[in-house]
Design goal:
Largest sheet: 4 strands, mixed
Number of strands: 15
Structural class: alpha+beta
CATH superfamily of the largest domain: Urease metallochaperone UreE, N-terminal domain
Radius of gyration: 41 Å
Number of domains: 3
Distance between the termini: 107 Å
Number of helices: 9
Helix content: 10-25%
Strand content: 25-35%
Order of helices and strands: HHHHHEHEEEEEEEEEEHEEEEHH
Shape: elongated
């Protein structure tokens, strides 16, 4: 015949079945139209597919070696002829047995899942850090079987249904040839082995649920929603597999006096009108249980903010601390006796404020006032 299938696959005439399959895989990866956009890629792919279809079938190969036509009565080799399975294409692109044949059993020992818990802390604990002991309910390795899942004195045995492969095969004949599919073995659930005598403590899982105490160090500067990862403190996996991670999500309780804004702390102090007018010296208690002296300058207005550098929240991933911002609220006396009223009247007279006039702050004019002024 004019076509030399051996030369097309790049193998010798004495090539074994494994050598043929390896050569076909290599060429199929190179020539498949999905990965090769050359104009002749599709035609060349069909040619090497036909060549492998012929040479992988002992009868067709013998016919070809004798000089006969191995494709007579098979549709010209354009598709997948008899004896050429869908697995051969899958093998070429995804490696040996990608189509399901001999995929192999899945391990009983698997990594456990991660766990997430909420950790409630006070504002001072979030700002300055603290060591906590928490109780968690998670899966741990079964102490009776040490994670094997088998009762004492027994062990897993090879599955009789899949003979240890972990999956079972089904072959369907179609116009494209034999299409082979696989699914996990229903008898062993894909493990390739069964446990005839499962552990009575864990029922063959290799793990049990238990409550345990964990010590955790909360770093200074954590905020609402911060997650702390504890590696290997999550759920132990099936079959006694390695544990996942435990994540603690910080929930910061509200404080009576202080609020947080990023790395800054905020609070308010209320002063009588006289103290705000004359000035005052204050000792402000803080979250870290110390008093900070604050000088309130004379004539301080309500809403004025006094900033104390470096007395805020320690930065979580950097050095230094934020600031403490103290907002002054001036309290106007609501109930005056006769003497206090006379004193304030004298002060108003001295300041010429017996008949005060409303003065509109230009920054807070209404839109109507701004339009009126624009036409004056």
């Amino acid at each position: 015949m004019a076509t030399d299938y051996y030369q097309m696959l790049g193998v010798s005439r004495e090539a074994s079945a494994d050598e043929l399959k390896k050569a076909y895989r290599r060429l199929a990866r190179q020539l498949h139209p999905d990965v090769n956009d050359a104009e002749d890629a599709a035609d060349r792919f069909k040619e090497v597919t036909t060549a492998y279809e012929v040479l992988s079938d002992p009868q067709k190969r013998a016919t070809f070696d004798r000089g006969g036509d191995p494709l007579r009565g098979t549709g010209g080799g354009a598709g997948f002829g008899q004896g050429f399975s869908f697995d051969d294409i899958m093998d070429a692109f995804f490696g040996q047995n990608a189509g399901g044949t001999g995929r192999g059993p899945r391990p009983r020992m698997q990594r456990g899942q991660d766990a997430l818990l909420r950790l409630d802390v006070e504002l001072a604990e979030a700002v300055f850090g603290i060591d906590h002991e928490i109780k968690v309910d998670t899966a741990v390795v079964c102490s009776t079987c040490a994670g094997s899942g088998a009762a004492e004195g027994s062990e897993p045995v090879t599955c009789r249904t899949c003979h240890g492969h972990g999956d079972v095969q089904q072959v369907q004949r179609s116009l494209l040839g034999d299409i082979r599919t696989s699914r996990p073995c229903p008898a062993c659930r894909g493990f390739g082995s069964t446990i005839p005598e499962p552990c009575s403590e864990c029922s063959g899982e290799g793990r049990v649920r238990s409550r345990r105490t964990i010590s955790v160090s909360i770093p200074a500067g954590v905020d609402q929603g911060t997650r702390i990862q504890l590696a290997g403190e999550g759920e132990v996996g099936p079959g006694g597999g390695p544990a996942g991670d435990l994540y603690l999500e910080v929930n910061v309780a509200e404080h009576d006096m202080f609020t947080r804004a990023g790395d800054h702390l905020q609070c308010q102090v209320t002063l009588p009108m006289t103290a705000a007018s004359l000035g005052a010296h204050l000792d402000l208690p803080t979250l870290d249980e110390k008093d900070i002296p604050i000088e309130v300058p004379p004539g301080t207005q309500s809403g004025h903010v006094i900033t104390i550098k470096g007395e805020g929240v320690p930065r979580l991933r950097a050095s230094g601390r934020g600031d403490l911002k103290v907002q002054v609220i001036v309290e106007t006396p609501a109930h005056l006796d006769h003497e206090q009223t006379e004193l304030l009247q004298k002060l108003a007279a001295l300041r010429g404020e017996e008949h005060p006039q409303a003065v509109l702050d230009p920054q807070h004019q209404s839109m109507f006032g701004k339009i009126k002024n624009a036409f004056r």
